Amino acid sequence: MPVVMDADRIGRTLARIAHEIVERNKGVDDLALVGVRTRGVPIAKRLARALKEITGHDVPTGALDITLYRDDLMRHAVGPQPQVRRTEIQFSIDNRKILLVDDVLYTGRTTRAALDALIDYGRPKGIQLIVLVDRGHRELPIKADYVGKNLPTSPEESVQVRLLEIDGQDEVVLEGGAA
Amino acid sequence: MTTASTEVDRKPAVTALRHKDLLGIGDLTSDEIALVLDTAEAMKEVGTRPIKKVPALRGKTVVNLFFEPSTRTRTSFEIAEKRLSADTLNVAIGTSSVVKGETLADTALNLEAMSPDMIVLRHSSSGACHLLSRICRSAIINAGDGMHEHPTQALLDAFTIRERKKQLNGLKVAIIGDLLHSRVLRSNIQLLTKMGAQVWVCGPPTLIPTDIRRFGVIATSSVDEAVADADVVMLLRIQLERMEGAYFPSLREYFRVFGMTEARLQRAKPDVMIMHPGPMNRGVEIASEVADGPYSVILEQVANGVAVRMAVLYLLAGGAEHEEAA
User: Fold this and answer.
1) B122 is catalytic
2) CA A61, CA A50: separation in Å to the nearest integer?
3) β partners of residue A3
4) Dihedral of the alpha carbons of A108, A109, A114, A115, in degrees to the nearest 10
5) Chain A contacts of B83, Cβ < 8 Å?
6) How far is A74 from chain B (nearest CA, A)?
7) Of A140, B63, B126, B208, which residue is least crowded by CB atoms under 10 Å?
8) pTM, rounded to two decimals
9) How far apart are CA B143 and CA B136, in angstroms?
């Protein structure tokens, strides 16, 4: 199982993305981070810490659960429902620039659901998408604004992002496929 | 508990309910109860948003079939269904063909021919939901059947207790009132004992079911004994409409002996919660000063009812775990 990003590389990548955020938005005024559950949430928190170190300002951070917005929710004739967890966005997203954070960008369907979910909370000034890994194979017209690593994959492979806060270690692993 | 769990989410012991219907708490395991309560926490957040609606049950049809009067439960289910974007249909007895002599089974089969996905049923006969469950493909949710069960009420009660006390295990819960006619009691004692609470039930000897102890509860006719060091005191309505004989001399006397007053409440824990499933008879099972007092969570129960019913509707809209297709 090839490790495509180790802990050092993930750390450097997030630091670079934080600088890109500051450069592109000319500071962090009106910004807020929203992580998509599960692994987008710790990544968003790490970015918030990095932004604080660079600019000295706190960026509000929230967690978004997209389960109730999935487009495959009622498609299965039978089968258990995916687990719903809490969305925690303790600030108004109206007129803010929202940095939507996820671990892997693949078909784009999760991002579509996240955009619909976010817009039910208000009318942000803009939404920018941050992903740690873009593995290609989009099924919807969605593109990330900040990419940690572009990783060409085949659909048979799977990309596993492991994070210290959830999995006990930091790494991105490419699994499966015709090796 | 969950507020601190933003980063690492609790992994539930089960991810689905085993049955297609929710007929009673008796059919649920403690893990399934925990799943409903955890899901309800997420659903409660939906009610705090500017747009209180999610698309989860888009295209699903839910029939609310109520053969008994109900304000709280029916409106609570309807709001829950609408917040999940389901299409809802309310059938009330007064305007239905039941007044022309149609049986419950025929009414249900006719509704089923229009292929709803779920039927929420309230009926005065115990077991009415089980009958529907056998003849209908739709998921049946029991919204109260006779003197049998009222599972969503017990789930919302448990949710309300857990929100305040963090857990149910080890709590002393005193349930006082008309035990004999209460489906809320039958659902609650099963749920609370499954989750590890110590349940005391209290009422006039004539209103204590003879077999109540088989549920693992302690029965008494002494309010003081029941209330002593209680974490939760739940009052049940005196159901005059279900009483065919004289169970106690008068409502005044009932209040004097069993009515919950501030003075009686002194024996409970300082952070006791006062609960009532409604509708309340003020001055019968509960004094107004207690119903409106600082320990009362009666309106919180109503608010939580919507979140818990959303959780049940959502979980039953999927398939059961054992039916999962490969």
Assistant:
1) yes
2) 13
3) A173
4) 70
5) none
6) 7
7) A140
8) 0.90
9) 16
Kindly name the residue from B44, B83, B148, B150 that is annotated as catalytic. Answer: B150
At residue B2, the pLDDT reads: 39
Q: Return d(Cα B301, Cα B324) in angstroms, integer.
A: 34
Contacts of B50 in chain A (CB under 8 A): 120-122
A166:B7 CB<8 A: yes
User: Looking at residue A38, what is its pLDDT?
Assistant: 92
Q: Do A78 and B318 touch (CB under 8 A)?
A: yes
pLDDT per position as a tens digit, B55-68: 999 999 999 999 98
The answer to whether A116 faces chain B, any CB pair under 8 Å, is yes
Give the DSSP per-residue string, B191-205. HHHHTT-EEEEE--G
Please state the ipTM of this predicted complex.
0.85
Please state, in angstroms and rounded to a whole number, the distance separating the CA atoms of residues B237 and B182: 8
The alpha carbon of residue B24 is apart from the nearest alpha carbon of chain A, in Å, by 20
What is the per-residue pLDDT for B94? 67
Residue B239 is predicted with a pLDDT of 87
Closest CA to A45 of A64, A65, A27, A61: A61
Q: Rounded to a whole number, what is the distance in angstroms from the first to the last CA of chain A?
A: 9
What is the spatial distance between Cα B314 and Cα B118, in angstroms, rounded to a whole number? 11
- Chain B residues in contact with A63 by the CB 8 A cut-off are 6
Catalytic residue selected from B18, B19, B72, B282: B72
Is B73 tagged catalytic? Answer: yes
